[in-house]
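Lay summary. Proteins are chains of building blocks that fold into shapes, and those shapes determine what they do. In this project we predict the shape from the chain. Here is one chain we studied, written as its sequence of building blocks.
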Amino acid sequence: MPKQRSVVSLDLILEELGDFGKYNILNYAFLLFPVFLAGMYGFVYVFEAPDISYRCQINNCENAENNSSWLTYAIPKVKDEYSKCERYPLRDNVTWSNATCTDSVFDASRTEECSTYIYSDEDSVVKDFDLGCQDWKRTLLGTVHNAALIISLPLTGVVSDRYGRKLALSVVSLCNGIMGLIRSFSVNYEMLLAFEFLEAVLGAGAYSTAFVFAMELVGPKGRVFGNTLINLIHVFGLMTLSGLAWWLQNWRHLLQVIYTPALLIFSYLWILNESVRWFLNKGKNEKAVKILHKAAKMNKVVLSEELLAPLYELNKVTAYHDTTKASETHRSQKIKESSSLMQVVKSNVMRKRVAICSFLWVTSTFVYCGLTINSVSLAGNKYINFILIGIVEIPANIVCLLVLDKFGRKKTLISSYFLNACFCIGLSFFSKDQKWWSLGFYLCAQFFITMSYNCIYIYVSEVFPTCVRQSLLAVCSSIGRIGAALASQTPLLAYYYAQLPAISFGSMALTASILVFILPETINLPLPDTIEEAEWLSNKRKNVNHRERWT
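And here is the predicted shape, written in a compact code that computers can read:
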């Protein structure tokens, strides 16, 4: 006879336990470490393969000084800079055996592609693997990394939902460390690309696993603060990446420094406790009770026996309210049914919700990653620009914390997407000379997309039921990585029209703001456990008591 789970409102127990007692803080601290590392791993390719300065190599003319007068005769200028990929050929009647490096030997009426290149002293895979004039190979690293997440996130989600949050987090972090370190020793571009893909496929699910793990530690009132804390730590990881890249000035050393700490997370198998919510969902009530008592002891609180009573009755279906046996059995059956992703496919409401949430995630990743990646192309020091992008995310996280619980998830998402669209499209009206206006609008656009990105994580985790929450979170997030993969290619769009990336970002954000109107509000509601409860979130009768409705 299959084991049935005891039906309890864990949110009530967590409320009594306290959202941020000693137990919660300690476990959050452990979970924030992989989040910090993920902040670096997500964009390290920006500093692995930056667009560095280089030009054609002119044989028989080269010397220690690249600014020699002959460069003017040998290489055409594009926007006041020497062309990276073209040179003037020798005149038809001239050979190097009888030529000197003067204007008389070069034919300025036509150009030819370069075959070899002189690179600047900047460190980059472009220089190490001779990728001159192959920008598509440079940007392909970011595309491959983010495309791999389409596989990684659902895979990690399934492992996490089936075998536990702790095991999934420990294993994927170990894979992160191993694959990242091997990548640092790449001997050619193909090896680098292969391990960029493998590291993302096997290890990129660490962030989503840590996020779900952390969200399940706290009750409804603590989720917004917990989400904000996670996002702030992620931002610090982003800023630390830029600082380390600036200091080390070597992409191999950078990879070695940031990926080695990931190996330590494997020890979480012995350090961390499993998620109580996951244990309850799997019917492992005894283990859940043991952890709850441990948490209560550390937090110096006494849990009500009335709340814990249903957990002691294994293989029986109980509820917190005075309900009939039939209603209890019905709820138990619903929980069992909703454990399958097929139930999501059969539900019109859930299918629509998954589709919209996926598009919102595509938009968030496309705009957020696109703005972050292109920040190193702004005028000024690229490391400082990247840090500024991180700095502006700090107030964005704080504002998000203040408004989410006051105005709700929907209004926050609609407003932040719309304002991001305004600033992104506004960027297209500034010339390159108006750098301060451009920078101001750029940072404002980053501010509002950061708010959207932060909100979408907590919002999506609230509109799906417990038993498939991480799986669906992973599905939406992985589909969303299509946006990140496309964002990696946006620097190439600027070659055709300088403002095209900004216009693309704004158009996507505007569409997303409209679609949010279709979704339900989830403010102050407990996490749904069944498909029925998740569907009910779309019920517009505000006065219905949700706990009575679910039982």
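What the prediction tells us: The first strand starts at residue 54 and ends at 56.
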